[in-house]
Amino acid sequence: MRRFLPVSSGWVLLLLMAACTTPEAAEPGLRGRVMDTNGQVVAGALVTALYDSLGVEVTVGTDADGQYVVPLDFGPAPQLRVQHFGFDAQVVSAPGDVVLEATADGYAQAPSSAFWGLLPDGVEKRQFMLDCGGCHQFNRAIIETDGTWKSEGLWHERIAQMIGFAGGNSGFPIMAPSRDADATTAWLMQHLGQPGDPRPELDLAPLRTNDADEVVITEYTLPVPQDLPHDLMVDANGEVLITGMMTHLMYTLDPASGRFDTTGIPVQFANPRALDLADDGSWWVLLGYPRQIAHYQPATGGWRSFDIGMYPHSIVHDEARGRVWFNGHFTKSPELIGYVDTESGEVKTYDVPTEAMPDGGSTIPYGLRIDQQGTLWATQLVGGRLIKFEPETEAFTLYDLPTPFSGPRRPAIAPNGAVWIPEFSAGKLAHFDPQTERFTEYDLPIPDALPYIARVDPRDGSVWIATAAADAVLRFDPQSRNFAVYPLPTPASLVRHMDLAANGDVWIAYGNSPAVTPKIARLQRRE
After folding, report:
1. Which residues of 188-209 are buried (b: 16+ CB within 10 A; e: fewer)?
2. pTM, 2 dp
3. Element spanning 423, H or E
4. What is the domain partition of the chain in residue ranges?
5. Is the four-CA dihedral 226, 472, 500, 56 of positive or negative sign?
6. What are all long-range contacts of 355-362, with beta carbons under 8 Å and residues at least 24 apart?
7. Rounded to whole angstroms, how far apart are CA atoms 233 and 500?
C-alpha cells in the first residue's frame, strides 16, 4: 500500500485541478517554470519533489521552455528542490515559477568529471584513474582543504594511506604495486597547484546540455546510512534486490511504497557484492571476504553456501548448464575463472592464459557476462583485455582493447551477440563484434565521466551506460550513434551497478565509498 503525506488545502486544490484535466490536456502533476535572473528560461534544470518521511525523491528535468511537471506518484510533496550546474540550488514550498541565481562558486556543484579535466590526458592520468577513481570521487572535497588546493603534505599523507589500505601489496590490492606516494604527489601538485594558487574555471558546458526532461528519476534512500549498495537486480515481481556490502544484508525494495525489507546472510562478515537470479526466483549471492557463493530460496528462507577459495568479483548464473560462474578478483599466476555446480556443489576452476602486469600486479579480473550460446565474456580492468571463454571446449581467446589502460569494467551482451564495454579510464564506449573480432570505440559526450557499467535494452538495442564521475547516466543509440545524457540529482553518485526491468525501467545503485548518501534510483523514460 502506498503511503501519502498530509495534504494542505492548497495542495488539495492543485490535485483537484489535475484530476479534472481532459485527456487532451497536459499530464497531471506539480508544474511550473524555471528561469534565471535575466528572465531567460533554464532548460535541463532538475526539479525534485522531496518526500523526507519516505526517504524518496522524485526528479524531472525542465524542457526547452524551462517548464517542468513532477508526477504525483507519492502524492504532493512538502518541498521542491531546483538545481542546475552553474546556479545556486533553491528549495521552495510550492510548485510554480522559480528563479535561479548564478552561483558565485563554480566549484560548489561541479562533479568529479570536471575536476578530472584539470589533469593532462594520457597514460599516466588513466593509470591514476584506475588506481584512485573506482571507489572514491575526485571532487572538491578531495582536492581542496579549507577552500584552497591541498598541500603537498596532505596529498602525500592521503595517498600513502590509500596505498597502505589498497595498494598492490596489501590485502585488498586494487592499486598497482608500482603506485608511489612521492611520484603521485609531485604529479598532482604540478597540475593542480599549490595552496593559495588561483583556481582555474571548470568546464561545465558538457553537463548543462542534457536530456533531463525525457526521464523521471525516483531515488530511494537505504535505511542504513553507512551501507554501500553494491549490486542490484529486479525480480519477476518488479521488486529490487540489493546487496548491502557494508552491513552484510540483502535488501528488497518495493518501488510503489518505497519500503525496504532486509534479509540477513548467515555467514560471518558476509560482504555481499554481486548477485544473479535463477529462473525459479532464488538468489545467487557472491560473498567477498568469506570467499564463498551463497544460494537463497525466498520461499523457504533457506541458505546454502559454497567455498570457492578466492575473493571473487562477478557472478553469472548459467541456467542451461546448472552452473554459477565467478572470477577471482585479484588472482594472478594463475588468473582464475570458475563455477559452482548448482546441484552437487562441486567447484571447478580454469587458468586464464595471461600473465601478471609488468610491475607484478594483478590484471584485476572484473566484469563477467554470458551470451545466449553459453560463451563467457570477461574483462581485465588493469590488463585492458576482453576475454572469451568457451566452456564446452575450455578454450580461451584474449583481445587487447585499442586504448592502453582504458579500464574495461562491466560489459553488456546484446541480443545479436555483440559485446558493449564501458572503458572507464578512457572515457569511451567500446563495441566488439565477435564475428569480425574488431573493436569500435565511441567517445562519451562528457569527458572524464568514468563509465562503469553498460546494459543493453533488448527491446530496441540501445545501450545504457552509468558513470562514476559525471553524476549521470547515458543512453547510446547504435543506429544514430547519438548519446542522450540524463543527469542524476544526487552529487557523488558513483554508479557501480545497473539492471533493466522487463518494462524498460533502468535501476541503478549509488556506490560511492565511503557512502555519501546510499541510494537506489529508477529512471523511467517519458513516452
Report:
1. bbeebbeeeeebeebebebbee
2. 0.93
3. strand 419-423
4. 9-100, 112-192, 289-525
5. positive
6. 356/332, 357/176, 357/382, 357/383, 359/168, 359/176, 359/177, 359/178, 360/168, 360/177, 361/168, 361/173, 361/176, 361/177, 361/178, 361/332, 362/168, 362/173, 362/330, 362/331, 362/332, 362/335
7. 8
Angle between helix 152-166 and helix 181-192 axes, rounded to 10 deg: 140
* pLDDT score at 3: 31
Q: Whose grid coordinates read 534486490?
A: 241
Whether residue 367 contacts residue 314, with contact meaning beta carbons closer than 8 Å, is answered with yes
Q: How far is CA 74 from the centre of its chain?
A: 25
The C-alpha atoms of residue 464 and residue 484 are separated, in whole angstroms, by: 9
* Cell of residue 4, nine digits: 501519502
DSSP alpha helices (H): ranges in 305-363? Answer: none
Per-residue pLDDT at 258: 96
Task: Report the distance separating Cα 53 and Cα 69, nearest Å.
Answer: 22
Of 78, 96, 71, which is closest to residue 18 (Cα–Cα)?
Answer: 71
Asked if CATH classification 2.60.40.1120 holds for the domain at 9-100, the reply, yes or no, is yes
Judge whether residue 330 has pLDDT over 90. Answer: yes
The CB density around residue 513, as the number of other CB atoms within 10 Å, is 16
Structure confidence at residue 1 as a pLDDT band (50, 70, 90): very low
From the candidate CATH numbers 2.40.30.10, 2.130.10.10, 3.40.50.150, 3.40.190.290, the one assigned to the domain spanning 289-525:
2.130.10.10
Degrees to nearest 5, angle at CA 314 with 313 and 320: 150
**Residues comprising the chain, all counted:** 527
pLDDT in tens, 147-194: 899 999 999 999 999 999 999 989 999 999 999 999 999 999 999 999
Q: pLDDT tens digits, residue range 411-430? A: 999 999 999 999 999 999 99
Burial class, 122, CB count within 10 angstroms (exposed 0-12 / middle 13-18 / buried 19+): exposed
Cα separation values, 247 from 78, 172, 222, 411, Å: 31, 18, 11, 27
Q: Fill in the DSSP letter of residue 294.
A: E
Cell of 188: 598532482
Nearest in space to 377 (alpha carbons), one of 270, 456, 495, 285: 456
| One-letter identity of residue 4 | F
- Any residues with CB less than 8 A from the CB of 161 and at least 6 apart, and which? none
Question: Per residue in 37-61, pLDDT tens?
Answer: 999 999 999 999 999 999 999 999 9
Give the torsion through C-alpha atoms of 32, 35, 39, 40, to 10 deg: -110
- Has residue 312 got a pLDDT over 90? yes
